[in-house]
Structure formats: structure tokens, C-alpha cells
Design brief:
By secondary structure, this protein is α+β, with helices and mostly antiparallel strands. 20% of the residues lie in helices and 9% in strands. It has helices spanning 47-50, 72-82, 88-91, 143-158; strands spanning 8-9, 18-19, 23-24, 31-32, 98-99, 108-109, 163-164, 172-173. The longest helix is centred in the last third of the chain and has 16 residues, at 143-158. The termini are far apart.
Length: 177
């Protein structure tokens, strides 16, 4: 069984291979085989329209414009000698500058983690008000935070050895019941 109309011949004069998966050049719109699809392989006359590359300076990461016919390496070298804004001190900038305010913690974070209650900057481990003994307000800003504090207080109240107030109102130790 043949597949009529699917085969095309490579447009390269020296090749003319019959290809069932032909590729169309996006610059000159001609059909080529896999061996001649690159602009350089078929000496594409329209390659200048599509083959535009802008080299980047390896020091300052700035794009360096290259005119047609110039060698990119030479232009980038000239940029590095004259126009480059490379600052070696910029490489030494510290990333982790936000120190945790919890006493005894020496961790630093890349970005600020600010407590909604007290406005202090803390690490990921101490970001919640319960973890850094927050003194910002009497009640957390969210209902979930308030519920967590109530559960923590309730579990501390029910723990063995805690002094509790039974329903009858008399003060006694939990272990003596």
C-alpha cells in the first residue's frame, strides 16, 4: 500500500532524496530532508531573517548587540574591555539576610517571614505565634490560630499533674481523684 502525496524530494540540488517526513525551512519555505534542514546545511538565503542570536556578557549578564557580519566573540570581548558594568562586590552579596528574632535561634531566611501579631521577623521554624512566644496581642488574628491556642491550653489543662477545677467547683489535684 502506497501513501500518495506524502513523499517530497529534498530541495538541496546535491541531494534530491525522496523523503516521507519532509521538513519545511521556516526562513525560505523550501522542503528539505533531515540532513539539510539547518540554515547552514542548505545555504539558506533567508536565514538572516530568522537566525538572530544575541550573545550575553558572561560577567554582567547584559545582552550585547551584534551587527550583521560581525563575529559575536569579538563583539562580546570588546564589550568586556570597554562597556561592561561588572561589579565583583555584587557577587559577594548575601542571600540569607533575615535573621530570626527568637532568642537563641541563629537561623537566617532568604525572605522575610513576618508575624502578623507582633510584626517580628522569624525563621520558618518559629514563624507561628505559639513557636516564638508572641506577645503582640491577646488573641491571634485568625480563627484557626485562636482555635489552635484553645486546643493547646485545653490539652495542657487536662495533662496529668495539672490543677483543674471540676464541675462541682472544688479545687483538687487531678491525680487524687
Amino acid at each position: 500500500m502506497e501513501l500518495p502525496g506524502l513523499d517530497r524530494r529534498c530541495a538541496e540540488r546535491s541531494c534530491r532524496r525522496l523523503d516521507f517526513l519532509p521538513l519545511k525551512c521556516d526562513a525560505c519555505e523550501e522542503v528539505f530532508c533531515k540532513d539539510h534542514i539547518r540554515y547552514d546545511d542548505h545555504a539558506c538565503g533567508s536565514a538572516y531573517k530568522k537566525n538572530v542570536q544575541v550573545p550575553v556578557c558572561p560577567l554582567c549578564n547584559a545582552p550585547v548587540p551584534v551587527q550583521r557580519g560581525e563575529i559575536p566573540d569579538v563583539v562580546v570581548g570588546a564589550h568586556m574591555d570597554k562597556d561592561c558594568n561588572y561589579n565583583p562586590a555584587q557577587q559577594k552579596q548575601r542571600i540569607f539576610t533575615n535573621k530570626c528574632l527568637k532568642p537563641g535561634c541563629k537561623r537566617k531566611e532568604m525572605m522575610k517571614v513576618v508575624c502578623d501579631q507582633c510584626g517580628g521577623n522569624f525563621c520558618i521554624k518559629h514563624r507561628h505565634p505559639l513557636d516564638h512566644d508572641c506577645r503582640g496581642s491577646s488573641r491571634p488574628a485568625s480563627k484557626a490560630g485562636y482555635a489552635a491556642m484553645m486546643r493547646a491550653a485545653e490539652s495542657a489543662f487536662k495533662s496529668p499533674g495539672a490543677i483543674g477545677l471540676p464541675s462541682n467547683g472544688s479545687l483538687q489535684h487531678n491525680r487524687c481523684r
